[in-house]
Specification:
There is one protein chain. By secondary structure, the protein is mainly alpha-helical. About 85% of the residues lie in helices and about 0% in strands. The chain has 2 domains: about 90 residues; about 30 residues.
Length: about 160
């Protein structure tokens, strides 16, 4: 008698477990396969959406480019038509004159402002604080004499 004939229940149990294992594996496989299929469909849908968005962006860029070309052509036509009438020298002279006028106004406005808000007060030297030495007085006298000589020579 063989061991197989003695334990038919054991063999049936093994076959049943193998079938259950295969069924569980098939269920897992089918589930995973359906998950992959749904992921692929979502990916394909997302790619379609991205493709349509990119096509929209490309068409907007092309429209903007066409608009820019049209604007540039209009500007070039206006420059060709009005270019000879524009005299850059006279424009530059007017600009320089205006700039110098504005400079002068600002300069004299600043002078008036300084005179009104910050008047110069004559400073009186205090005798006790700053006594000049003999050498400083001699240098000052030499400077005055040199100024007198320069004035007489230039006259």
């Amino acid at each position: 008698m063989s061991a197989e004939s003695l334990n038919p229940q054991l063999i049936d149990e093994k076959i049943r477990r193998i079938r259950e294992s295969v069924k569980n594996w098939e269920d897992k496989y089918v589930k995973r396969l359906s998950e992959l299929e749904s992921a692929m469909l979502k990916f394909a849908e997302r790619c379609q959406i991205d493709k349509s968005e990119l096509n929209d962006q490309i068409s907007r860029v092309e429209e903007m480019s066409d608009t820019n070309v049209a604007i540039r052509q209009r500007i070039e036509k206006k420059l060709i038509v009005h270019g000879p009438t524009l005299n850059s020298e006279s424009n530059q002279r007017v600009l320089t004159l205006t700039l110098n006028l504005v400079r002068g106004i600002l300069y004299y406005t600043a002078q008036i402002r300084d005179a009104l808000w910050y008047p110069r007060t004559p400073t009186k030297p205090k005798a006790g604080l700053a006594a000049t030495s003999a050498s400083e007085e001699a240098l000052a006298d030499d400077g005055e004499q040199n100024d007198d000589v320069k004035y007489k020579v230039s006259s």
